[in-house]
Design brief:
single chain, Enolase-like, domain 1, 125 residues, alpha+beta, three-stranded antiparallel beta sheet
């Protein structure tokens, strides 16, 4: 597998303050949603994007992005093309958000892998 290394990780929690809340259930207040985005950049400039959404009452959610701040420093220097090894590493990390918080990193690594292979991700596997 090609030698490829993560050189930078960017985290974004994006929400539209003007978007109407989403009705969720009869016994709950309508919920606001936040797009939690991870951007992985490699040493050669390849970019991978992954995201997950979170839903909360009253205020927009930054919990997933904040929980990732504790583990993203460990991503620097890792090979995103080694998706199984990266997934194993993520699984062993302790973070409040659990798998929903870690999934955008995995998705971003697969995005890089597909770009390096020169094909759409859905055809890669």
């Amino acid at each position: 597998m090609e030698d490829c290394r993560i050189s930078r990780v960017e985290l974004y929690a994006l929400a539209d303050e003007n978007a109407p809340p989403i009705p969720w259930a009869d016994n709950q207040e309508p919920l606001l949603y936040t797009n939690n985005i991870v951007r992985l950049l490699t040493e050669d400039g390849t970019e991978g994007l992954g995201a997950t959404m979170s839903y909360t009452e009253n205020f927009f959610d930054r919990c997933i992005i904040e929980s990732l701040r504790t583990i993203v420093p460990g991503l620097i220097g890792k090979n995103p093309l080694m998706t199984q090894g990266l997934n194993n590493w993520l699984g062993a990390r302790c973070t409040w958000g659990g798998l929903p918080a870690k999934s955008p990193i995995d998705i971003a690594a697969w995005d890089i892998k597909a770009k390096k292979a020169g094909m759409p991700l859905y055809r890669l596997v």
